Amino acid sequence: METIISSSNESEYNEILRQAIAVIEDSRNKIARAVVSTSNEMHWNVGRILHERKLDSKHGDGVVKRLSADLKLMFPKLGMSVSNLWNMKRFYVRFLNSDSKLQQAVVVLPWGHLNYLIAKFGDDDNAILYYAQKTIEKGWSRDLLANAVAMKMHLSIPETNTANNFGVALPDTQAAYANEVFKDTYNMGFLGITEPIHELELERRLVDKIKQFLLELGQGFTFIGNQHILNYRGKDYKVDMLFFHRGLHSMVAIDLKISEFQAEYVGKMNLYLSLLDKLEKREDENPSIGIILCAEKDNVEVELALDGFTKPIGVADYKLIIPKNELKQLINNEIKNFNQELINRQLTEGND
User: Fold this and answer.
1) Res. 156: pLDDT tops 80
2) d(Cα 102, Cα 14) in Å, to the nearest integer?
3) Element at 315 (helix H, strand E)
4) Less Cβ around it within 10 Å: N or C end of the chain?
5) Cβ neighbour number for residue 206 with a 10 Å cutoff
6) How far apart are CA 148 and CA 151, in angstroms?
7) Half-sphere exposure (Cβ direction) of 168: Cα atoms closer than 13 Å
8) What pLDDT score was predicted for residue 312?
9) Which domains does the chain have, with CATH numbers?
10) Can you state the angle between helices 142-150 and 324-351, rounded to 10 degrees?
């Protein structure tokens, strides 16, 4: 018999769903990291054997070629090519005497990312540590990592984001993390918008493409719902989009605006956050965070508008048009994903 969920139990069900999704996503990430870590432990130990046997390209080339042939017969899916075996030795030698912080960062990197960084930066521990930490934190693909390296992000001085009051409204540690999590500008070119639209239509398109929007927001976000109703003393208040961020352990309310930033938007968001904390925040959760997403903003005006508010609020703008180079990259990624899905489907059908 089908169970009917009454409206009074809807918020309780949404809480159960949110918690279940967060647990599943956390477990999947832990499993992925554990698989990568185990694989790199294998790479490390094979590299150690080659190093301890004093094998190199001059005196051990024949041994490594034979070793590769034998290992590929026994373990055809473990990537035991000649070049990969030499990469394993390079990996071991490169990080053998590194400090534990760097070793712990690189051991959970995908093998391709790791070899890319070694080739790019050699003995530059600081650069490798920076990109390793950012890759884990933001879930960068190999292409995104290459783009970050090309931009020399490890040499840039982080800009102070004045478009929020996190430094006042949140503890220092959480404020610093929140500034890492939230962007100053979001690229929403994936929506394909070519003419002016209303805010509800913008919201509808984001919900229709919530997967792409979650990718743009970054790692750790779980979508709770749109037009989320907060009922207080018989009156309904609707949050445009509501998320939960696993790392911040906070609900995140997003208010969508098709216009440039206006000071009165802050008061409305402050009200939403007060209601979220009063009605839905659990005791073990951190204060809810609000993001006002506008077509344009002026940081000085935002800073003045936020003065005196104690709820954590940030203001960001968005782009609806993708630059040509980013569009090309997006198309290439879509082609790669399509080809991989096609290969997987063919393998599945072949196994059947």
Assistant:
1) no
2) 40
3) strand 313-319
4) N
5) 23
6) 5
7) 15
8) 96
9) 32-155 (no CATH), 166-321 (3.40.1350.10)
10) 160
